[in-house]
Amino acid sequence: MDDLLSGALSRLDEAAKHVEVDSEVLEKLKYAKETLSVRLSVRMDDGSRRSFPAWRCRYDDTRGPTKGGIRFHPSSNVEEVTTLAFWMTFKCAVMNLPYGGGKGAVKVDPHSLSKSELERLSRAYVQAFAGMIGPDRDIPAPDVYTNSMIMGWMADEYSSIVRQPSPAVITGKPLPLGGSLGRDDATARGGYYLIKHLEEDLRLSGSARRVVIQGYGNAGFHIARLLHADGYRIVGLSDSRGAIVCADGLDPQAVQTAKEQGGSVTAYTGNGARAVTGDELLGTACEMLVPAALEDQIHKGNAGLIKARVVLELANGPVTPDADCILNEAGVIVLPDILANAGGVTVSYFEWVQNRQGYYWGLDEIHQRLRVIMETEGRRVWDMGSARNIPMRTAAYAHALERLSKAIAAHGTQPFFVG
Ligand code: NAD
């Protein structure tokens, strides 16, 4: 079995030690319900035709229609899609959203395509998966290298196929096409609300609140902006091209402007900032590390370098199970992805609700609703982890597993049928 998926399933086994759960439930959660693999055939601008492997996985829909993003990435594969769909199943359960978990991907480097080719590829994806997705069945969203415009094309293509406007088929759409206010920074904002709520428990309320952020895209930039505005000092940042550190603190907007002009955070040279390697970034003295790039970035080879006391996982799966053990032994508190980055799917849920009711909320209402859910579920996970003295990741999985288990067992398990 693929490493990423077996790593994810090992966390399920760990969580099962802390919850009363029927073996049938565990068996069901070990396999995806439905996965479709296709090749998308797309006409290129030069008249040639190219085909791209693409997938959609609906991992488990016991608690509701499946929900999860679509990724366009050159190294996407079916195991990664399945693992991401598994994580979504648990993420929606942690947050008590009425959804199961799904995910999709196309193996492509989107930067190698023209805008017209990207539109044709996005529409081809929906043509291939139109029978699988739907507002009551499976609701995609953006993920790595997909954005709101792509979601708008996809919703439009689906609406053409079903011959009626159907905005609730997809979330993360542009605002004029039924998107929700607050979706752009929802992932980071959810993580920020979680940190604010647990600030005293995490001993982050003092004066030394230094932060290192790995990855400076949507999640990384917005968490830098929110924490900086709140008085945290951003002492290191990176993107796929390099990393910078600055003990006096970086201004997130100034770094973003330099990145837009120079193509990387390393283009920022103000305030004594200097370029470092990725490992040096991880070893920078700080109170909190925020992985906001891709999966498996913190592994057994570099976990020992980390000086932070708290890790806020905005990326999905950034810490491997081996690295998790190293961090636990060092007493580092890891706020796990399925809780820490769940603000994104929560506001996606709000978008779907607004599309279905045809009535749209203001930004304050979105923020308030997001804050309540992050605080409620964050506190439950924290209390379970503290009371049982288990890592927060195990607590988050156990909390989700309790909900999934109740839903699956409500259909009856062996003891019910045989008495
Ligand atoms: P993005 O494409 O906007 O940004 C990704 C960033 O990571 C880019 O700055 C890229 O240069 C950087 N990066 C890539 N490889 C790197 C490396 N080896 N070292 C350092 N930086 C590297 O993507 P995003 O939407 O910000 O997503 C980031 C992570 O957050 C992903 O794991 C994604 O699944 C997760 N996530 C995103 C959302 C969301 O709403 N955007 C929601 C939940 C989870």
UniProtKB/TrEMBL annotation:
InterPro entries with a match to the protein in the record: Aminoacid_DH-like_N_sf, Glu/Leu/Phe/Val/Trp_DH, Glu/Leu/Phe/Val/Trp_DH_C, Glu/Leu/Phe/Val/Trp_DH_dimer, Glu_DH, NAD(P)-bd_dom_sf, NAD_bind_Glu_DH
Q: Which domain of life is it from?
A: Bacteria
Q: Which residues form the Glutamate/phenylalanine/leucine/valine/L-tryptophan dehydrogenase C-terminal domain?
A: 180-412
UniProt KW Oxidoreductase keyword: yes
Keywords, sorted A to Z? Oxidoreductase
MF terms per GO, please?
oxidoreductase activity
Q: Which Pfam families match?
A: ELFV_dehydrog, ELFV_dehydrog_N
Q: Name the coiled-coil region(s).
A: none
Family as reported in the entry's similarity comment: Belongs to the Glu/Leu/Phe/Val dehydrogenases family.
- Name under which the protein is recorded: Glutamate dehydrogenase
Q: Which organism is it from?
A: Azospirillum himalayense
